[in-house]
Design brief:
With 261 residues, the chain is α+β, with helices and mostly antiparallel strands. The protein folds into two domains: 113 residues, no CATH class; 126 residues, no CATH class. Helices cover 54% and strands 10% of the residues. Strands 4-2-1-3-5 form a five-stranded antiparallel sheet. α1 crosses α2, α3 packs across α4 and α5 packs antiparallel against α6.
Length: 261
């Protein structure tokens, strides 16, 4: 925290935010309480039934930003998430003047980091490298892609739902993604977020399983006659849950989903 926040007022603000988090009913509050119990990120993921431990590290950075102002300077994505969470907190009533001023200052700092073109470009380059490495494994199964624009600017910012491409490859993810990259319909290279491995024979039926549940949950499919039919307004959290219920392994390639809960 800044020098002023080492004062009594600063400690009071920190206690006020901690109290809020201790009563928060979202996943952020869950992670905060488990961390206070001393659980590791792996133990936190297991307790919450989340297949990827990476989410716990991301939430830990969100908590560090909110509580003591430690900014995720190397991640435009996490800065954007933390800024959104800060705005959500500011909508809550009952903050003291000092706490509100602290949160407003934090929001400004996080927005600046989220807009940093150097940080964002580096992060997207790293995401593309991980995408290519995963594609080279030629794993058949269900794949989840997103365009960088829709990760930065989700269709439904309140819930963090955005357009994700959920499709299958009977041969391998690499072949399907290569076909995607060649199409003139996409303005930028898609980033691979998840792979749910299957056999080549099971891939079509598993794709139908995902698409049916997405439609039943009103995670609406793209209705355009010109656009791909595999784009849904959803989150990787929801997809990971579907995969886990199906008994599929969840391979996290890039953890860039705009949703935090």
């Amino acid at each position: 925290m800044t020098e002023s926040e080492t004062s009594e007022d600063g400690r009071s603000v920190q206690m006020e935010i901690r109290l809020f988090l201790s009563e928060d009913e979202t996943r952020l509050g869950d992670v905060y309480r488990l961390r206070e119990e001393g659980l590791t990120p792996a133990e936190t993921a297991e307790r919450l039934g989340v297949p990827s431990v990476g989410f716990a590290y991301s939430y830990a950075q969100l908590l560090d930003a909110l509580i003591d102002g430690t900014l995720p300077r190397n991640s435009a994505h996490l800065s954007r998430q933390a800024a959104g969470r800060t705005r959500t907190l500011l909508k809550s009533k009952g903050w003291s003047h000092a706490a509100r001023a602290w949160l407003e200052q934090l929001e400004t700092q996080l927005d600046a980091l989220a807009a940093d073109e150097v940080v964002r470009a580096r992060e997207e380059d790293e995401a593309r490298d991980r995408t290519e490495q995963a594609e080279d494994t030629r794993q058949p199964g269900i794949y989840v892609y997103a365009l960088p624009h829709y990760l930065r600017y989700p269709y439904d910012p309140e819930r963090g739902h955005t357009l994700l491409k959920v499709g299958q490859s009977q041969v391998d993810v690499y072949q399907r993604s290569t076909q995607q990259r060649r199409t003139t319909a996409l303005p930028e290279d898609p980033l691979l977020l998840r792979v749910y491995g299957t056999t080549s024979e099971d891939a079509p039926a598993t794709e139908r399983y995902f698409h049916t549940f997405l439609e039943d949950a009103d995670h609406h499919r793209n209705r355009s006659t010109r656009a791909g039919r595999e784009w849904f307004l959803t989150t990787t959290k929801f997809l990971d849950r579907l995969a886990t219920e199906k008994g599929l392994d969840v391979e996290v390639i890039n953890d860039l989903d705009p949703a935090t809960d």
